[in-house]
UniProtKB/TrEMBL annotation:
Catalyzes the condensation reaction of fatty acid synthesis by the addition to an acyl acceptor of two carbons from malonyl-ACP. Catalyzes the first condensation reaction which initiates fatty acid synthesis and may therefore play a role in governing the total rate of fatty acid production. Possesses both acetoacetyl-ACP synthase and acetyl transacylase activities. Its substrate specificity determines the biosynthesis of branched-chain and/or straight-chain of fatty acids. It comes from Leuconostoc gelidum subsp. gelidum. This is Beta-ketoacyl-[acyl-carrier-protein] synthase III. Residues 107-178 form the Beta-ketoacyl-[acyl-carrier-protein] synthase III N-terminal domain. It catalyses: malonyl-[ACP] + acetyl-CoA + H(+) = 3-oxobutanoyl-[ACP] + CO2 + CoA.
Length: 324
């Protein structure tokens, strides 16, 4: 039976590191408040002119090197982002150009912080079709360009970064896709970014105006705590598994306090949860991709189950299980 697995992974973050004290110089906040509420100490911010496609390209090159592949070996490129370079061309198309991946077609997926999980699920289906063999799935975000830096309730959370995996056709061996479950609940207000209002009249002064990222933090917390632990329990139960049967969890890096809540709700130790938010902040869809690569670099996953769970604006959420 056709299947897919992860062959290699990598990540890339901008070189500039912004501390909580740095933010306190421009926003009415402080290090103690940020750490107590979010767990974040630092974040990487793109201050050298790197856009989302640039971060994605760097992560993709590193992943291809890990897989000992050339760009021409790739059939499909999926970039998950809600901070694209622009609406058109797609960020994925720019990455395809940058890589000179002449045999690949490319497109973006926009499901905010759940993007990487949705991207993996999508690539898995294309590979299972038998038409495509190798896919690059890249999660890349330059959240900083979408921030209102007068809004301390959002700005302190976010950082920039990218992670990438190479998926290949294989129903056996390490890193196979063992199951998934995805959900969407339409909600336009709790989290939104980049909205452009339609016209109300014709005028030579009309020019597109885009809004900054905005979230209602308490509503986000309530949605996640009400839905995500039960989603994980249900997903695993449908596969005759319990949380204790999972060796490592990689949740969306939204907020360290949220990750701690999920761990407690699942009655699982926090050391089973891959976390990079303390150093990187919330990198939206890239957080899980970065966490996955960091886990692969730090431990031997042979014989392990790894559950990736994303959740974000939309409201979108889902999980994908890998067996190594």
């Amino acid at each position: 039976m056709p299947g897919s697995k992860i062959l290699a992974s990598a990540h890339y973050v901008p070189s500039d590191i912004v501390t909580n004290d740095d933010l306190a110089q421009i926003i009415d906040t402080n290090d103690a408040w940020i750490q107590s509420h979010t767990g974040i100490k630092t974040r990487h911010i793109s201050l050298q002119g790197e856009n989302t496609s640039d971060l994605a390209t760097q992560a993709a090159k590193l992943a291809l090197s890990q897989a000992h592949m050339k760009s021409e070996d790739i059939d499909l490129i999926i970039v998950t982002t809600f901070t694209p370079d622009g609406l058109a061309p797609s960020t994925a198309a720019l990455v395809q150009r940058n890589l000179a991946a002449k045999n690949a077609w490319a497109y973006d997926i926009v499901t905010a912080c759940a993007g990487f999980v949705f991207g993996l699920s999508t690539a898995d289906k294309f590979i299972r079709s038998g038409t495509y063999k190798n896919a690059l799935v890249i999660a890349a975000e330059v959240n900083s360009k979408m921030m209102d830096f007068s809004d301390r309730t959002s700005t302190v959370f976010f950082g920039d970064g990218a992670g990438a995996v190479v998926m290949t056709a294989d129903a056996h061996g390490d890193g196979i896709v063992a199951g998934e479950e995805m959900h969407t609940i339409g909600n336009a207000d709790v989290v939104h970014s980049g909205r452009i209002a339609p016209l109300t009249q014709l005028s030579p002064d009309n020019y597109p105006k885009i809004d900054a990222f905005s979230q209602i933090g308490r509503d986000v917390f309530n949605e996640v705590t009400e839905l995500i632990p039960q989603h994980i329990y249900s997903f695993l139960e449908n596969k005759s598994l319990k949380p204790s049967d999972v060796d490592y969890f990689i949740p969306h890096q939204a907020n360290l306090r949220l990750i701690e809540y999920i761990a407690n709700a699942l009655n699982e130790p926090i050391d089973k949860f891959s976390t990079n938010i303390i150093r990187n902040g919330n990198t939206s869809s890239a957080g899980i991709a970065i966490g996955f690569d960091e886990l692969r670099q730090s431990v031997n996953l042979k014989g392990k189950r790894v559950l990736l769970t994303g959740f974000g604006a939309g409201f979108t959420y889902g999980s994908i299980l890998f067996e190594f």
